[in-house]
């Protein structure tokens, strides 16, 4: 037994080394900003966004040109909602500007985590004719995006789903489905109600009992609830499911590569995202400059060309090609195919719905 | 993990009197040793003991700031309890399957020439260096409805194919087993290497058949390794997060995912802390079981010797 002991000790030491390295690596990514880089003399602006294809498009269309024009350095990080809130509460957030969905900004405001926006410092936004509900006291909207249906064009023997009722019709269109997980965003209750015959303009306040009853019908066909924006593409691309919900834009690369996938705009749920400044931000001036820059019509149009999120500044459509604006959920042409998520309703009912969804999904 | 290390030397005798303590502390070597230990102790206090205690306190704090146990009653009723039981079941399945496969693999490796053994060991361990996310997506490509395994089975006209190997409990167990396998193989290999081949030969020379030799000589010799490996993979699996989240369906939520949901989604740190403490207690229970099994087997051995 003596030998085995030594071997075991060696093994444990190895384990310890692995654990220590990973712990160190974790520390490396979690260090707070040194005071040197946080001072007013610094020119580095730290922006938070959700990364992925969306982050890449932002870098190319907005952040890089901004850096070139102003000489301000930008660093992008991707903490999630809970991490951001924890950092702000500690008083020293690692970021100066948050790019996130407007629903989360209402929650941030409730937690008193974001600053009042000084609209006098936003010259462009002031006269840009941006929708009133996107200029809130603590957040400025910048893009429209949305959740849509997507399907494999080679799946249903030539038939094509064209509405949420078709998504729910597993007899006419048999095949696996995928819906969004609670971890990713607010649940897709509206789609169930639309499938059940509720008109687009009569959705809110949502009838929870009716929505969950309708969701019961399809539960057996839902193979996976996707929890990251990239997963619907993987599931559809690997033929794990034939039809899924997806954040519009996430499949564009796959479609370009020749995958037989298509979006359905009918019944799309539109949301908006925007900017907010956390309390304790170190670089206010640069933050305001970037907000203002991102709302210039040409910048808004340039972003929409790379990533299908619609501008909030109407003037952006002037220079935009028709084939680009046709791909945008939020463009005037597509407005009557979908509906706007009622932010107020969702913020007021999020906790209750979350609880109910969690119980429902697991039984 | 501490249980896996050899038992500490008995120190009771020398330290019973205060004089003994003083003499011990005054020794130069002891002082030097204490000095050396200080950084580690401080490190552990700050980064290990303090966070665990604040988690414990958080789990006992009510919404009004007072003491409460209702986070624990929440965690041990309704769907939370179901999730806890599912976690225990998946962990048990994983540890049993990875023990069986790990046993066969480790046994095979001990029979190989050293150079081949090293190579096979490498094959077992190297997947561990690949990021878990990549590994899991690899599984999806392998095990999906149109993955390699199902395509092969369908080409061979296996009845019932394609099988659903993903997004159910089977998928999770396949995934977690592959993660735990290196641990069980390494542990069992170390123990098996220490088995004296002469004993096997002796058993055979005394007329024991292969099966009898295996069950009455070999298995008892490697039993400590089996217990260690089984409980280690069970404990590791209890807190596992990524694989169940990616390879399971909605019904395979494990406690770690629930904790993540509570913190990230519901901003509910108290409930999450309670779940964390319950996981920790389960881990301790596992380690206690390990101790118990060991002392029982020691006692049995002593009786046998007498």
Characterise this structure.
The complex is a heterodimer of chains A (363) and B (306). Chain A contains 15 helices and ten strands. By secondary structure, chain A is an alpha/beta fold. Chain A folds into two domains: 168 residues, Periplasmic binding protein-like II (D-Maltodextrin-Binding Protein, domain 2, 3-Layer(aba) Sandwich); 149 residues, Periplasmic binding protein-like II (D-Maltodextrin-Binding Protein, domain 2, 3-Layer(aba) Sandwich), CATH 3.40.190.10. In chain A, strands 1, 2, 3, 4, 5, 6, 7, 8, 9 and 10 form a ten-stranded mixed sheet that branches. In chain A, helix 3 links the parallel strand 1 and strand 2. In chain A, helix 8 crosses helix 9. Chain B has 306 residues and is an all-alpha fold. Helices cover 75% and strands 0% of the residues of chain B. Chain B is built from 13 helices and no strands. Chain B is globular and about 70 Å long. The interface between A and B is large, with 35 and 36 residues.
